[in-house]
Amino acid sequence: MTVEQIATFLDGEVIGDGSVLITGLAKVEEARSGDLAFIANPKYEKYLGVTHASAVIVGKAAAIEGIEKLPPALIRVDDPYTSFVIALEWLNPQPELIAPGIHPTAVIAPSVSLGEQCGIGAHVVIGEGCRIGAQTKILANTVLGSNVTVGDGCLIYPNVTIREECIIGSRVVLQPGVVIGSDGFGFAPKKDGTYRKIPQRGIVVVEDDVEIQANTCIDRATMGETRIRRGTKLDNLVQIAHNVVVGEDTVIAAQSGIAGSTKIGKHVVIAGNVGIVGHLSIADRVVIAGQSGIAKSITKEGETYFGYPAKEMSRARRIEGALRQLPEVLVEIRRMEQEIQRLKDAVEQLNKKEE
Description:
The chain is of the alpha/beta class. A 12-stranded mixed sheet has the order 6-9-12-15-18-23-26-29-32-35-37-38, with helices on one face. The chain contains 4 helices and 38 strands. It folds into 3 domains: 3-91, MurE/MurF, N-terminal domain (Udp-n-acetylmuramoylalanyl-d-glutamate--2,6- Diaminopimelate Ligase, Chain: A, domain 1, 3-Layer(aba) Sandwich), CATH 3.40.1390.10; 101-315, Hexapeptide repeat proteins (UDP N-Acetylglucosamine Acyltransferase, domain 1, 3 Solenoid), CATH 2.160.10.10; 325-355. 32% of the residues are buried.
């Protein structure tokens, strides 16, 4: 594949030799001759003069003037990161993980409905009344409880569990170890100090185009549903509790947890290791920085929060800046206290002399 062909596919502009052949893709700092790389962050522009890549995808604002030794070719585009992703998918497509058909070790109930071109892997168990859409792939050791619905074009990796009655939309990706529809954490305290389990009779609904990464757990509702709306992306080891609703196109990073009945808006970004208590509302387009703790609802759209308990970012930074100066401030306070005491003593001595 030549640089010119790739540039045409990406709707980009070639600077340099468009006839250069591309045989692979790599990071700009690790690339070798024949590789296509990209630069989306300006801090990586320093590699433009030293990379061994044969071509680099850059943004239209990339600073290339004054660089003595550029790669043989550059491809200018509006969005280099997205363009590289498109090139990666085009030049290095994912191999077929499983061919259509049913592995002989799979256990599929007689009442199951399978769409066309489904692939069912080894030791998969699919319970009574399940409906699986066309071209969905279910890999080894996955278990679907009774009356589960899975839409078209889904990819379910090994060792996933989807419990009874849950609904999965189309084009959903579930990475290894995901659990959909486990019991919500509901226990009522009794007078004797023990706990009575609260039945969890609701379901989980995962809408279209959602991707859920490895070992994330989404609990079924106590009643009604826990819902993950269209386009949402959940990282590894995320915990979504019972009756939570996560809005469209929201992203949640690893080790974050959302307690029961909280409602997350659309286009929200939740960074890693964030904790959100139950029965709150988070407005649309809110950003929550890593390791923050959310104890109150956030009602203003588009705000960024940080800290524990979380505060609006500018205020959190001011508080953080003040805390860093605290040791010096304490020293100064002690000095001032000593000076005040010295002045008090001097005044007292003066008063005694006047008497």
